[in-house]
Amino acid sequence: MSGRVDEVLEVLQRVLVEPIGRLCRALGAGAVALGAAVVRRRWQLGAIAVFAVCAYALYKHPPFASVNGGEVMVRSNQLDGSVTAFSGGTVLVLPKVHQVRRYSTRDQVYRLAEGASATGSAPFQSTEGLSIGVDLTIRWAIDLNRIAQFSKAYPDDLNADLVRPAVQDIAYPLFARHTVREIFTVQRADIQRQLTAQLKPRLAAMGLVLRSVSMGQVDLPPDYRAGMEKLLDEELETEKIRYTLQLKEAQVKQTQLESEAEKVRRQAAAEAAGQEQVIAAKAQEETMQHILPFKQKQIEQRQLEAEADKVSRIRTAEGAAEARRIEARGEADSRQKLADAEAYRLDLVGKANAGQMQREGALITQYPLLIQKTLADKLSDKVQVIIAPTPEAGHFIGSNLLGEQSEAKP
Q1: Which of 63, 133, 211, 395 could be 118's S-S partner, Cβ–Cβ 3.0 to 4.6 Å?
Q2: Which residues, other chains included, contact 370 with Cβ-Cβ below 8 Å and sequence gap of 6+?
Q3: Residue 130 CB neighbour total at 10 angstroms
Q4: What's the distance, CA 137 to chain centroid?
Q5: Rounded to a whole number, what is the distance in angstroms from the first to the last CA of the chain?
Q6: Helix (H, G, I), strand (E, B) or coil at 261
Q7: How many of the other CB atoms lie within 10 Å of CB of 78?
Q8: Phi, psi at residue 321, to the nearest 5°?
Q9: Reduced to 3 states, what is the DSSP secondary structure of residue 238?
Q10: What tens-digit pLDDT sequence spans the chain (410 residues)?
Q11: Are 92 and 73 in contact (CB under 8 A)?
């Protein structure tokens, strides 16, 4: 802070105190001369005339100048050759001692008009030898830190005398190294960067600061423009196809990514399901650890129940078998008794039949005709009339009907 104060005081001393001191010394010398004239009474009219001339000169040409906004004022001292720059305030300017020049602090714009059209006065030349026009716009400003150093060498028109030659010296050779196609399309940005890189130090060497370099419209020859537009249409169609292919490829990649995502999601779902199954199995295992003893008790209980049921069934079967054996014995006894009764009955019937046959035999022997009578009684419901020869004595009445023949007697 103290350094800036010292600089301000030094500037004030250089700008105000020293000129005022010199003015005071000049006025003092005039006053001394006037006093001497008064003393001598011979130079009174001359002193009055000098004073009047100085007053008129100060009135017509005041020794002060104001610095307006947006500009910088450079004051050159013709006596000692010093140069001082001021960006604001009021500055002492002595006639015939100080020379003042004003410069704008705002950005300046220079356009290379003669090279903007392919049919202009000085068009650019491409490497094929074709004339082209390029709308170049150079934005620059004065370097305020070095304006005091370069102000003596600055011409009145900085655009025409400094910026224009620098731009021409760099732009024309640069465009001559490129084809029209490169300038018009692919190398446009690169050319602009090269212009900026080469022009910036060139202007900096002259105390100017390059703000930007912009390339506007590129003016082509009519025939070449028609061919270029046709070629550009084809390139645009090719680019469209390439972008379409890229879009399709992106869609394919998106589908692949979606498939991968679906695969990962399914794997995650499968892992989650597996984890759930593992957790469920562990829970089931833990549950079974509690259920198994209960199941074991149930099995033991069922085994005991089965054993009891087996013993019960065995006992029931044994009781049923014993009952059946008793029933069988009873039935066998009953059948034996029935057989005995039947045998007894048959024996009695046989004896009765034998006695009856014996009696009948004795009766038939005694009465042989009873056989014919009995046969007639048996056949009476089927045969109404029987005609047969009279049998021999002592033979059956139907022996002739039955075809029996008496045996020859010996």
Answers
A1: 133
A2: 363, 364
A3: 17
A4: 44
A5: 198
A6: helix
A7: 11
A8: -65, -45
A9: helix
A10: 445 545 655 655 666 656 666 766 777 676 666 666 555 555 556 666 666 666 665 556 656 666 676 777 777 777 776 777 776 666 666 666 776 677 777 888 888 888 888 887 888 888 888 888 888 888 988 887 877 777 777 787 888 888 888 888 988 888 888 887 788 777 888 888 999 899 999 888 888 888 888 888 888 777 777 776 777 778 788 888 888 888 888 888 888 888 888 888 888 888 888 888 888 888 877 877 777 787 788 888 888 888 888 888 888 888 888 888 888 888 888 888 888 888 888 888 888 888 887 887 777 777 777 777 777 776 666 555 455 566 666 666 666 656 554 444 43
A11: no
**SS3 (DSSP) at 76:** strand
- 202 by Cβ neighbours in 10 Å (0-12 / 13-18 / 19+) ranks as middle
CB within 8 Å of 164: residues ≥ 6 apart: 110, 112
Taking CB atoms within 8 Å and a gap of at least 24, the contacts of 153-161 are 154/101, 154/103, 154/207, 158/108, 158/208, 159/108, 159/110
Q: From residue 212, how far is each of 9, 75, 140, 209 by CA, in Å?
A: 38, 30, 7, 9
| CA atoms of 40 and 38, how far apart (whole Å) | 5
Of the candidates 194, 55, 81, the residue with the CA atom closest to the CA atom of residue 136: 194
* Residue matched to tokens 């030094």: 10
Residues of the chain with CATH 3.30.479.30: 107-220
Strand locations in 49-130 (E):
64-67, 71-77, 83-86, 89-92, 98-104, 108-111, 124-125
State how far the Cα of 301 lies from the Cα of 323, in Å rounded to an integer.
32
Using CB atoms within 10 A of its CB, is residue 65 exposed (0-12), middle (13-18) or buried (19+)? middle
Residue 212 CB coordination number (10 Å): 12
Helix, strand, or coil (residue 69):
coil
CATH of the domain spanning 107-220, picked from 3.40.50.2000, 3.40.50.410, 3.40.50.2300, 3.30.479.30:
3.30.479.30
